Amino acid sequence: MTAIDIFWVGIGGGSGSLLRWWVGKLTGERYHGHFPLGTFIINISGAFIIGFLSTLFVIDWHDRFGSFLHAAVLTGILGGYTTFSSMQLDAAKLVNSKQRMLAFGYLLISVVAGLAAAALGVWLAA
């Protein structure tokens, strides 16, 4: 790993985090329900994009940290954009507010829809 790799991952991660914040903010301003829609949209769109780009650019899973594209886009931008930890926090908040079924449904649909989105991205790019 070189200094330029670290730089690109940092720039990508910061950009992805800002994009996540922006999408979450816009969603929160328009949707006021209990379902964590912002985090859901972010994670599903990120799963689609990583599936699409990794197939389009023929990126081997074991080499995903190698080039500029891998470092800046897949690890940096998409790593900063998607958020497993926020998904878990959203589910924990739902459980704490006695909405256990919504929490379970949210986690289940997030995993299933994320897998489907990644598979769709792979299929469209193939």
TrEMBL record:
Q: Which InterPro entries match?
A: FluC
| Principal subcellular localization | membrane
Task: Extract one GO molecular function annotation from the record.
Answer: fluoride channel activity
Cell compartment(s), UniProt: Cell membrane
Q: Which residues bind Na(+)?
A: 79, 82
Q: Name one Pfam family in it.
A: CRCB
What NCBIfam families does UniProt report for this protein, alphabetically? Answer: crcB
Q: What does this protein do?
A: Fluoride-specific ion channel. Important for reducing fluoride concentration in the cell, thus reducing its toxicity.
Protein name listed in UniProt: Fluoride-specific ion channel FluC
* Protein source organism: Morganella morganii
By which gene is this protein encoded? crcB
